[in-house]
């Protein structure tokens, strides 16, 4: 009996006649036209595509590496600090820390591209601590305008661990991907700032909690791999991951992470630790209430163990080696913030009224009253504009009624007693 012949098809590429035993012998076949591609040709095409992708990636990396020299030249620490000085008053220590961290971030990238000796320079991720309204977010927002690399801010308090309602930690990387105009290569060398980081501290401090803590310890655990450097996968539109949704992969090995928060109450933990150290033994001095160290003195003495006591897990602290502290802003500093920076609130209102042909003058006492009010509210610099806005509302409403040239003077009483500003007509 003659042997039964199998199905045979000719490959449209290599023209060989293939015995087809299953779909994998001829992965692509159109019965209507007879167009077919055999498995050997599919493998060959795949190899060519892989080689092409590798070559394209290599040329992209080389192009980026060539740009790094120019970036390093433009972003030396003293140049970054000079730029920040134009917008941010005081906080010299924090400006230096951030300037050096950013410059080293560029240098680390350059070293990785140009050296293949097995030595890896570790990332110097930064943790920023400082009271509300002292300039943490302002520092970072101005820094982002200066840099040539993508920069994304994410609110850590909105993050929850996977499976709970809320945003997964991948959101931070997705924000960076969009900040890089959907360029993965650029995103992989960017900076991520996690604001309100203290809000994800363990509620139970250094002690483990047995109850579910979706917005706290679980988020810290989820952030661990990302901080260290891992491939983060997320969906383009932000929907939950499922087999149908196309995903984007970003490697965070070269992403610099800066985290910041007010860490309310950490000064008590620092004071307690310092007290223990200084009040042991017979020669120890007993401090009176007036001799207690102030917040600014304490915050600069923060150590990793204080952050652990506050509720940040030890593994996270190990991945945030640079601690950057900011001081409280006193009356004089707030006074300077009102008038000195390029985008000072007083300058903004002067320009707004100048467009209506009006000269705006703030008396020294009035500005001091604004600063005192901000200190009373305990909101730092962020409430300065709001206080001036309250005073200026009626004037900005009345001014456009007439085209006459006028001079508006804001006195101390306008701030403290809600008196109307002085308006005079000028020639």
TrEMBL record:
Query: Which GO-annotated molecular functions does the record name?
Result: ATP binding; ATP hydrolysis activity; ATP-dependent protein folding chaperone; peptidase activity; unfolded protein binding
Domain of life, per lineage:
Bacteria
**Which NCBIfam families does the UniProt record give?**
clpX, PRK05342.1
| Ranges where the AAA+ ATPase domain occurs | 122-345
Keyword Glycosyltransferase applies? no
Q: Which residues form the Clp ATPase C-terminal domain?
A: 329-423
The protein, known as? ATP-dependent Clp protease ATP-binding subunit ClpX
Tell me one GO biological process term: cell division
- Species lineage: Bacteria, Bacillati, Bacillota, Negativicutes, Selenomonadales
PANTHER family named in the record: ATP-DEPENDENT CLP PROTEASE ATP-BINDING SUBUNIT CLPX-LIKE, MITOCHONDRIAL, ATP-DEPENDENT CLP PROTEASE ATP-BINDING SUBUNIT CLPX-LIKE, MITOCHONDRIAL-RELATED
Record organism:
Selenomonas bovis
SMART domains cross-referenced by the UniProt entry: AAA, ClpB_D2-small
Alphabetical GO CC annotations of the entry are:
HslUV protease complex
């Amino acid at each position: 009996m003659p042997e039964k012949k199998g199905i045979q098809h000719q490959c449209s590429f290599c023209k060989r006649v293939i015995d087809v035993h299953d779909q994998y012998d001829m992965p692509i076949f159109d019965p209507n036209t007879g167009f077919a591609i055999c498995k050997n040709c599919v493998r060959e095409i795949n190899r060519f595509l892989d080689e092409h992708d590798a070559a394209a990636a290599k040329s992209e990396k080389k192009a980026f590496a060539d740009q790094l020299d120019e970036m390093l030249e433009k972003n030396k620490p003293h140049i970054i600090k000079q730029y920040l000085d134009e917008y941010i008053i005081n906080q010299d220590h924090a400006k230096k820390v951030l300037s050096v961290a950013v410059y080293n971030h560029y240098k680390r990238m350059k070293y990785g591209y140009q050296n293949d000796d097995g030595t890896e320079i570790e990332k110097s991720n930064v943790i920023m601590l400082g009271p509300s309204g002292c300039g943490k977010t302002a520092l970072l927002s101005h820094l982002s305008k200066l840099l040539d690399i993508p920069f994304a801010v994410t609110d850590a308090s909105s993050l929850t661990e996977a499976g709970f309602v809320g945003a997964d930690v991948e959101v931070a990387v997705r924000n960076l991907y969009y900040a890089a105009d959907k360029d993965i290569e650029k995103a992989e060398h960017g900076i991520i700032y996690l604001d309100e980081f203290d809000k994800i501290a363990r509620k139970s401090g250094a002690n483990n909690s047995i109850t579910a803590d979706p917005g706290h310890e679980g988020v810290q655990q989820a952030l661990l791999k990302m901080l260290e450097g891992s491939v983060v996968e997320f969906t383009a539109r932000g929907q939950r991951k499922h087999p149908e949704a196309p995903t984007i992969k970003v490697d965070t090995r070269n992403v610099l992470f800066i985290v910041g928060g007010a860490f309310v109450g950490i000064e008590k933990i620092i004071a307690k630790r310092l007290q223990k150290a200084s009040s042991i033994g017979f020669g120890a001095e007993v401090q009176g209430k007036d001799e207690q160290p102030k917040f600014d003195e304490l915050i600069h003495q923060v150590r990793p163990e204080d952050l652990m006591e506050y509720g940040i897990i030890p593994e996270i602290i190990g991945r945030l080696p640079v601690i950057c502290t900011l001081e409280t802003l006193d009356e004089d500093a707030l006074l300077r913030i009102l008038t000195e920076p390029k985008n000072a609130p007083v300058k903004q209102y002067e320009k707004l009224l100048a467009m209506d042909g009006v000269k705006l003058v703030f008396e020294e006492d009035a500005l001091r009253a604004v600063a005192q009010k901000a200190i009373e509210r305990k909101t730092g610099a962020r409430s300065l504009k709001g206080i001036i806005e309250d005073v200026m509302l009626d004037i900005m409403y009345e001014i456009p009624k007439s085209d006459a040239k006028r001079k508006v003077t804001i006195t101390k009483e306008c701030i403290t007693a809600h008196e109307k500003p002085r308006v005079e007509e000028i020639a």
